[in-house]
Every structure is written in C-alpha cells, then in structure tokens.
Design brief:
Length: 355
C-alpha cells in the first residue's frame, strides 16, 4: 500500500517542527510548505538589504528529511491584511485571517496534487488571536478543510478527523496538549532530538511588533489605505521614520545596509514618482528617502531643507558645512540639485521619530 500523504504547514517553530516529527514517526509521507507573506523580518532583510540567514523551516525540514516547498502569498496578502474578517491582535496582526489564507492555499495544493490531509502545529488555547477553541473551528470552516485538517499536538482534544477514521494515522499516538505553557513540547523536542528552534514563537513576523504597528498606524492616520502595497509595508520595518508634514515622511538609514536599501528603492516601479531621495556627499551619515503622498506640496523647499537638516543631525562629519544631493523625478526624468547646510546648526534641529 502507498503511504498516506500529508501537507505540513512548517514555520520552523517548535510546534510545527514537532508536528512534522510526529507525522514522520507515523510513517506519513510529508511535504512541508513554508508560506511567505513578505512581512517576515528575515524576508524583509533578504529582499531589501541582501542579508541572508538560514531559514528555520528549511533547517528542520532537512533535519526531518522531508521535502520543503516555499509558497509566496504576497499577491493575496495585502487585500487580506487591509480587510481582516476576524480583526487584528495587539499590534496589526490579523493572525486568524492569515492562518485561514494559508490553509485555503494548502487545501488547493492538497486537492491538486493528491494529498490525504493537511497538518499544522497548532495547540488548542495557545495563542489568543488564532488558537482559541472557536478560532480552531472557524479556521476549519473558512478554509473548507472539514475533516482534513489534523493538529497532532492537540488532536485528542478535537473532533476526530478523516485520516484518523480511515486509519491513515493512529489517534492514540497523537497528543492532547492545551494552553500556552510549552513544557510538554520541550520534552517532546528532546525525545525527537530537535534542539534548534526559535523562542518565542512568532517572533519573526514584523506585524506582531508593536513598534512596527505604531509606524503603520501613523502612516494610515496621515494617508488613505489606497497607497498601501507590499513594498511600502516592508520599508516600514527599516530605518528611522520622521514625519515632516502631513503628506511627507522622511526615512533615514541607520546603517550601511539600510542606506543601500533606501538608495536602490525604485520610485517609478511602485508608481511613487513624487518621492525624493537625499544623498549625502560625505561618508558618515544616513541616506534619506522622502515619501510624498500627494502630487504637489506647497512648501516643498521647506520640507527639503528640514529633511536635510535632520540628516545633518545624524551625521558624524566634523566639517563646517554639509552637502546633500536632492534627486527628484520630474516629467519622467531625474533632476538633481544640491543643498548646503550648516553642520553645527543641524545638531539643534527639532524633530520626533516614529518609534
């Protein structure tokens, strides 16, 4: 007989890693799916700053000797993010809606490629935003995975699934874990030889970060959600953000990688041709990117001068004056001009960062 086949939603965290180990122990043929929303800190660092780290899901998949497939949700994610049926958590995290989107996509793969069921590392009662008892029920209904969604760590506390009824997996070998404590999982990890997993769970997602949420909410307070796209969301995670006027915000790099990320940002590609870059003509200071949300700013020269003075505030140069090149797209062409500011005066500039 052919082995039963399961799709595992694998993040690389402790719970999903254990779910994979349990399925392997039960002689299930597993395909791990690593969903990419685009707003994971690791993905943002890779795409904006070319900082690459070993993906935790890839590491555990290799350890368990199961194949892994990376599946992007970027084309669907922003619409879900802006209109979450089940709302946000304590930051701007639509965790339940995000999880349902992943399950729906996993269901499509399951049906198209002939898998028997989908498995996750969810633990009943663990996460307040997506794993309360009713949330687990809602996720099944919304995803259309009735009977085909197995949660090995809490299976004994949940209704029996089709793979259990059909003998594809032995329910007695599954678990009945409940709540936020992770003692049982850590003991299981030791038994399975799983040693390297991120703590706390979910720490890799930018939108669960309250500092990120503050930046997002500040952006929405000054603009409509019509301007929101994936790139704009990713850039909320890097640099210093400083509101200059209602319809213009300055982003400054905090290090060389962030400076490079801001400098290579493609204004035309994302239909933001009014955005302006400010490049220091000195070595020790931030690169500036001015996001503009309306076609015209009446006091643009004042905005540019203040932005340059804030850049000077963060410079490490000791020269009397600082030169900054302003670059703007006008009628489809890039135009440049130079601003000279007094270094000492810039150190007295008043502004407030969006933390």
């Amino acid at each position: 007989m052919n082995k039963p086949k399961a799709i595992l939603l694998l993040s690389g965290g402790l719970d999903s890693s254990l779910a994979g180990a349990i399925l392997k122990r039960e002689n299930i043929e597993v395909l791990a799916i690593r969903f990419i929303t685009g707003l994971e800190y690791a993905v943002i660092k890779e795409e904006l700053m070319e900082i690459y780290n070993n993906d935790p899901a890839k590491k555990i998949a290799d350890f368990l000797n199961i194949p892994i497939r990376f599946v992007s949700l970027k084309d669907k994610y922003i619409d879900m993010f802006l209109n979450p049926k089940y709302g946000y958590g304590s930051a701007v995290n639509p965790c339940l809606d995000c999880h349902i989107l992943m399950l729906k996509t996993a269901k499509e793969i399951m049906e198209k490629e002939g898998f028997d069921f989908v498995a996750t590392g969810e633990v009943k009662g663990q996460r307040p935003m997506s794993q309360k008892p009713q949330d687990l029920i809602n996720a099944i209904k919304e995803s259309g995975l009735e009977g085909r969604l197995l949660r090995p760590l809490s299976a004994k506390l949940l209704p029996i699934t089709i793979p259990e009824k059909e003998g594809l997996i032995n329910r007695e070998n599954l678990f009945g874990i409940y709540g936020r404590a992770r003692n049982i999982q850590m003991e299981l990890a030791e038994k399975f030889g799983i040693k390297d997993y991120p703590i706390p769970a979910g720490s890799g997602c930018s939108i669960v970060d309250k500092s990120y949420a503050k930046r997002y909410k500040e952006l929405v307070a000054h603009n409509t959600t019509k301007i929101i796209n994936m790139e704009l969301m990713q850039y909320l995670a890097i640099g210093r953000h400083i509101r200059i006027v209602d319809n213009a915000k300055l982003i400054l790099g905090r290090n060389e990688k962030e400076n490079d990320a801001l400098e290579k940002r493609d204004r035309i590609k994302i239909n933001r041709i009014n955005d302006i870059t400010l490049k220091p003509n000195y070595n020790r200071g931030p690169f500036g990117y001015l996001e503009i949300y309306e076609e015209n700013i009446n006091n643009l020269e004042e905005v540019l001068y203040k932005s340059a003075m804030i850049m000077g505030y963060f410079s490490k140069e000791e020269t009397e004056n600082l030169s900054i090149t302003i670059s703007q797209i006008i009628n489809g062409k890039e135009e440049k001009k130079e601003i000279i500011i007094n270094n000492a005066d810039s150190k007295n500039t008043k502004f407030e960062q969006i933390i």
